[in-house]
From TrEMBL:
Superkingdom assignment: Eukaryota
Domain spans labelled Copper acquisition factor BIM1-like: 19-156
Protein name per UniProt: Copper acquisition factor BIM1-like domain-containing protein
Predominant subcellular localization, coarse grouping: membrane
GO cellular component, one term: plasma membrane
Source taxonomy: Eukaryota, Fungi, Dikarya, Ascomycota, Pezizomycotina
Amino acid sequence: MTRLVTLLATAALASTATAHFGLLHPESSLGGADNQNQNDSPCGGYRPSEDDETVDFYVSGDAVAIIDMHSQSDWILRATLESDASGDWEQLYPIYRTTGSGRSCLPQVTAPADWAGRRGVVGVVGSATDGLLFSCAPVRFVNGSAPDREECRNGTSVSIRLVENAQLLTFVGNDTSSDEPSGDSGSDDSGSDDSGSSNDDGDSGAASLHGAFQGGFAVSMAAIVGGAVMLL
């Protein structure tokens, strides 16, 4: 029986790993589920539409939760009012880097206040060893700050810090859906080293775009395996 549980856990973990990364909140089935297409812009091989079900995203601060299976990734968070994600992307948060595979969450990501009451798409673009990866979530922007999100949980083995990444900046402010980056610019290590730190109790997060950037996040591989078994 012990051997069977071990085999099931290993299989589930391997399945999660092949997805590159998953967008846990805003909850999304657009991108991230198909390993073959997650490198397709703008949403990992999927095109949002007005028929998609939305989740609320609070403009004064809401969580963006990711599970990443890479040892290091750079991230840009963006959003658009174009329901098909065709362009006009705005940056929601400074570009940051996660080091260590597992779960991370930014609990207070803000959006333009005048977007409240409108439909849109929140997008995540990651830059890792296997290239650029995309995921999107159809949302309805609403007033106020979000309640505590169950999905926004942080561990202890992932660190986070602000960085510069010229390539990721090409994915905001564009007017077309091609999202083709210009040049070969990649990450720049000149970002601040003290913008994030490890969090032993797993309860701290990161502040909003206009506040202090705090916390480093993670989940141990043992926790991932445990979660995979529970999913089975």
